[in-house]
UniProtKB/TrEMBL annotation:
It comes from Anopheles atroparvus. Its main location: membrane. The chain crosses the membrane at residues 449-468. The keyword Glycoprotein applies. GO terms for cellular component: neuron projection; plasma membrane. It is found in: Cell membrane. This is Ig-like domain-containing protein. Residues 1-35 form the signal peptide. Keywords: Cell membrane, Disulfide bond, Glycoprotein, Immunoglobulin domain, Membrane, Repeat, Signal, Transmembrane, Transmembrane helix.
Length: 470
């Protein structure tokens, strides 16, 4: 059977393909055999490769990590041995920015410079370090493959108190709730402490509070003052901000003695204490008339602190028209109040001296009277000569100073203030006793005169009889 041309062509193609596959396998076997023989017969190639690796640049020491305060200079050093003709570059890792190549500065940051020191050290300097300079830096040599090492620059920032949300000066009404806030930036993150500028306790007996917020429930006038927010993170300097807490409240008055007795001619001082904020207007009144500075009256005001005032009124020489009710008036924008002090008259007291010779001091609520049996003369301290201590007799619980006959002060006795009405009755009884005593003394004088005349007459009779007998 005869073969067709198509079958003849297919047979030729199959034979050619088999021949090519055979040739490829043969060549592959020859190449493998040659490579194995080369490895066994020529070890110098491996030695040459080791020598080339040994001659490549190597880093002499690691890059030291740095911690630099903001505003200072940072210095990063890369030491390379056997650099040969290779190039050195500094890069910023996080941004993949090329900073320098060899001694050329590539970045547009004018704060960076590069220096080649002692032939093997490449020194990168960053002046006026900013917080944004913090991060990883790479020193790279352009070998194949690239060789590099990295170092970290840590930038620390002193604390800074932020204007917001930190509290500013606050004005509140008494009884309301208050929260003071303080916020600060810095690296590391600052810690915040509150304390009072006056070092008074700020909370539950503590003089400080470690918190960014400080709350006061039902604020009162004792909370008023300056508070300090202090931020610190170990990087000097620490910083603080002063926040004034101002508490507004209407006036209040305290009066120690609302009933005061005085004698004519005495110098007397009345006193009121008041508290108010905003600052108050203070004045004295009598019979709905404001008392002003003059020869007879001397009003004065003493500020104890920002809200407390002591107001005094001195009456220099009391006369009959000065007795009555005085008012101390206090007012501010939130209200007005007043307090009353009644001044009443206390009569002077006189006591007669008795025998045997002795010195006796009798104290009243307004003056001291002294007696001594020397020719039946009464020694009495005048009202005008009394010291200021006579006023103290009017105060609750205060001691008085009593004058002896020689003018010295007797401080051994402690005269305490008693009810004025009771004291007045006692004075009246003393005056009645004095009158009775004086009357008895005067009644006895005629009897003593009669006895004396009788004795003289008897003596005269006896003398006359004796002469007659002679």
């Amino acid at each position: 059977m005869a073969r067709t041309p198509y079958q003849a062509n297919m047979d030729f193609f199959q034979c050619t393909t088999l021949a090519l596959i055979f040739v490829a396998l043969l060549l592959n076997g020859l190449h493998a055999s040659t490579a194995a023989q080369g490895d066994e017969d020529d070890p110098a190639e491996e030695t040459n490769s080791y020598i080339l690796d040994k001659d490549l640049p190597k880093f002499g020491e690691p890059i030291q990590n740095l911690t630099v305060p903001v505003g200072r200079e940072a210095v990063l050093t890369c030491v390379i041995n056997n650099l040969q003709t290779y190039k050195v570059a500094w890069l910023r890792v996080d941004t993949q920015t090329i900073l320098t190549i060899q001694t050329h500065v590539i970045t547009k940051n004018h704060r960076m410079t590069i220096a080649h020191v002692e032939g093997r050290a490449w020194v990168l300097r960053i002046r006026d370090v900013k917080e944004s300079d913090k991060g990883w830096y790479m020193c790279q040599v352009n070998t194949d493959p690239m060789r590099n090492q990295i170092g970290y620059l840590n930038v620390v920032v002193p604390p800074n108190i932020l204007d917001y949300p930190t509290s500013t000066d606050m004005v509140v009404r008494e009884g309301s709730n208050v929260t003071l806030k303080c916020a600060a930036s810095g690296s590391p993150t600052p810690s915040i402490m509150w304390r009072r500028e006056s070092n008074e306790p700020i909370s539950a007996g503590a003089t400080s509070l470690n918190s960014s917020t400080f709350s006061i429930s039902r604020v009162n006038r004792l909370h008023m003052g300056a508070y300090l927010c202090i931020a610190s993170n170990g990087i000097p300097p620490s910083v603080s901000k002063r926040v004034m807490l101002i508490v507004h409240f209407p006036p209040m008055i305290w009066i120690q003695d609302q009933l005061v007795g005085a004698a004519l001619g005495q110098r007397l001082t009345l006193e009121c204490q008041s508290e108010a904020y905003p600052r108050s207007i203070n004045y004295w009144m009598k019979n709905d008339t404001i008392i002003t500075q003059g020869k007879h009256f001397e009003p004065s005001i003493k500020e104890i602190n920002s809200y407390k005032v002591v107001m005094k009124l001195t009456i220099k020489d009391i006369d009959i028209g000065d007795f009555g009710t005085y008012k101390c008036v206090v007012k501010n924008s939130l209200g007005e109040t007043d307090g009353s002090i009644k001044v009443y008259h206390i009569p002077s007291t006189t006591v007669l001296a008795t025998s045997p010779p002795a010195t006796t001091t009798v104290a009243t609520t307004t003056e001291a009277v002294h007696r001594k049996n020397y020719k039946n003369k009464i020694h009495r301290q005048p009202v005008d000569d009394l010291s200021a201590s006579s006023n103290k007799i009017l105060g609750a619980g205060e001691s008085s100073e009593l004058w002896n006959i020689d003018g010295s002060i007797d401080k051994d006795r402690d005269h305490r203030y008693r009810d004025n009405a009771a004291s007045f009755n006692e004075d009246q009884r003393e005056k009645e006793a004095f009158v009775d005593n004086e009357a008895s003394s005067r009644a006895g004088q005629p009897h003593r005169a009669t006895v004396a005349v009788l004795l003289i007459f008897i003596c005269y009779t006896l003398v006359a009889s004796s002469l007659a007998r002679r």
